[in-house]
Amino acid sequence: MACGCYSEMAGCGLAGIVNRDGKKISGKFIYDSITAMKERGNGMGAGYAAYGIYPDLAEYYAFHVMLDDLDYESEVNAVLSKSFKIVKSEMIPTKEVPSLYKKTKPPYFYRYFLEPRDDARLPMESEEDLVVRTVMTINDKVKGAYVISSGKNMGAFKGVGHPDEIGDFFEIKEYEGYIWLAHTRFPTNTPGWWGGAHPFTLLDWAIVHNGEITSYGTNKRYVEMFGYRCTLLTDTEVAAYLFDLLFRKHRLPIRAVFMAMAAPFWKDIEHYKEVGLEKIYEMVKMIRTVYAPAMLNGPFAMLFAFKDGVIGFNDRIKLRPFVAAEKGDTVYMASEESAIRVICETPDRVWMPKAGEPVIALLNHCKEEDVCYPA
Amino acid sequence: MLFKKPQVAFYPFMVLRDDYKCVRCKSCVDQCSFDATYYDEDLNMIMNHHENCVNCKRCEAFCPTDAIKVVKNPSTFHPDANWTPEAIRDIHVQMLTGAVILTSTGNDKPIKNYFDHLLLDACQVTNPPIDPLREPMELKTFIGRKTDQLQFDSDGVSIKTTIGKQLELEIPVLFSAMSYGSINLNLQKAMAIACREFGTYWNTGEGGLHKSLREFKDHTIVQVASGRFGVDLEYLETSAAIEIKIGQGAKPGIGGHLPGEKVNEGIAETRMIPVGSDAISPAPHHDIYSIEDLRQLIYALKEATNYEKPVFVKIAAVHNVAAIACGIAHAGADAIAIDGVRGGTGATPKSLRDHVGIPIEMAIAAVDDRLRKEGLRNEVSLIAAGGFRSAVDVLKAIALGADAVYIGTVAKLAAGCTQCQQCHTGRCAWGITTNNPKLAKRLNPDIVAENLYNLLRAWAHDIKELLGAMGINAIESIKGNRLRLRSWGLTEQENKILGVLPAGM
């Protein structure tokens, strides 16, 4: 078995905002929301993901790369240049936050805006596959360099600290996006490593996760069969790859993806048959049979974001908190209602989603949810 | 040269009888099928031929006054780690018979049991264990060919992809192949009833399917072995799945031999051979001398049954098992059954039983790894067999990478077996591995069916408790999840092969 073989345990808080009309929201809101749940973290990890933050370079893949040492930049550059034209590269602006330096020395962050080179693709490889391959190569092969996000017009910002510290460090309040995710972390086992913080991303997917995946070993070995390599020592990464596999590569409808990952109980599946929903019964049974190794077990609440929306969901017996609310075109999801109320005092509706039942908040332009695949 | 045969002079067991308690009811004499006990009218005493005693304990069980104890003969050979009593007795047998030593059941040598060196995980604080008495806990398992990817129609509900027919198990445990001949119909019937009640499958073994058991069709796996006994179209169709038997853990590389004297009318009819004729299964299938031949047989069986039956291939776990299993997956099998070195049997040469093959734990790990590497793991199910003793063994095997487990010895034990290793003699005093009508009727299929059902129920509860402790509520989330295993007392190399970390890491 390849190593990187333990799943890291963590308790956490998470928050997400999406404006279904695509209107930009200042980073200030998500910052306030996640900071309201400081209790849920221990200052050893926090992060943000934002969509719509690079409107002028929206057609290029934005790679956020974390470097343990600036010297590694040339190696990253070399790997990227093999497959991409580097349209723009720069250091991600950061601010000095003295309290952060008491915990760890922050690494360096670069961002690259990339255009795939036509001659770089392998036979049968799609543009997205090329991006994924490049991400895997850098994470796996370039010492001290990790791609922390790789989608278009989006980016992840994360590190070892409280959410306000990390937010200040990356000047989150200066960004504007139509989707935001945030995370604060309570790792029990603290490698003090910036790459271990959430969100985890791949292409334009981002995930924040509160929980511990008890099926990690099964899921990890499953995605490895499809060429993914789990290098970040955390179970959240495997969820990101599962999502990529089921949604992007296998092109399952959104609801089918969640039926695989948080599968209904057999007794509920039988119920479909009993009430005459034979076709649904057949479908769910088939999904559970074929995608059994993709099921996530253990306590979790999770937010998935991609360019077209945010989907929140819980484990099959709701062992971690998860609340959703909406006001007008804005949908909020968080571990605690307080984190929503702090930025939206009077939501139109607040609810506790049922175990395993996803909350799907897509942009208005994709009401036909099944056609909304990632780019 | 010798006054007595050494077997008569030096016997391993003796029957102790408390003469004060003995009421001369003679039930021990009645029950003993090995001629170890007799009544002496002149003395009004129950006497013993200790040399015939096999320690089956039937007499002990039937003694109404608890007057009998079967014990190891305290008189044994000089202590010698090399020349053990067994080694010496084997020489005695062979110097007299000039034959291989036949035995039965599974390997009884103290070989390392890797299951005993594996520990399961449990949840503490960072995630909650799940209480199986309060929350759903799912053991449903599907055996059969699946696929890597489902394709949906544009309606988002209909699935275009089709997969092979699946066996649906309510517990990841099936009863292993035991033929009519090696065991009797009563045990087969008991297994069939228990499977129908519980929702799992039993396996006919290579002796055909007796007409009285056809009603259990939907829970029956029919076996096609090298002797092709009882195989015709009707047999193939009267099944939930078909298993091609290539090998068996207790005797890899050899066939089988049911002596003619055991072939009574029922067996003859079911095996489609004349009464009293030897039923010999050749070592190889004479139409399978290579992997491409196996493929032809797999597809011949599928063609014959209109692609409605999953076809399994059962092999013994031998050194190169991973590559062989891959070949079988490529050849089109829907499931691979692997029988490890501790696998049992009704009759085998002792040298093969104890020295050929590899442990099932290693085989599961190696095969699961290789199938994944080749991208074949979703195409084929993996059933492990050979010496499984408990629900814990089952769960550990699944965590190593098996989909389900075959149990055989456990079924016999539930029917009263005491593991005396005399199945091959056809004299089983418990009426299990014998077709002697007087003995066979000692086994009541309805009672044994209930016992087997209880056993499955108990194991299901055990597995659920263990899963719940691990914070898992569906069996598929432990499949191949070796991170929830730790080893103790294994070498680095053994850990590497099993794909597990040592405790403490």
Summary of the model, kept short:
Chain A is of the alpha+beta class and 375 residues long. Chain A contains 11 helices and 18 strands. Chain A is globular, with a radius of gyration of 20 Å.
Unreliable runs of chain A:
1-7
Our count of helices of chain B gives 16
Along the chain, the helix and strand elements of chain A come as EEHEEHEHEHEEHEEEEHHHHHEEEEHEE
Give the CATH H-level superfamily of the domain at 141-481 in chain B. Answer: Aldolase class I
- Taking all residues together, what is the mean pLDDT of chain A? 91
Which value, in Å, is the CA radius of gyration of chain A?
Answer: 20 Å
Oligomer: heterodimer
Largest interface: A-B, 51 and 45 residues
CATH architecture heading of the domain at 141-481 in chain B? Alpha-Beta Barrel
What value does the Rg of chain B take, in angstroms? 24 Å
Large-scale geometry of chain B: globular
Distance between the termini of chain A: 33 Å
Shape of chain A: globular
Instruction: Give average pLDDT of chain B, whole number.
Output: 96
Largest sheet of chain A: 7 strands, antiparallel
Helix content of chain B: 25-40%
Low-confidence stretches of chain B: none
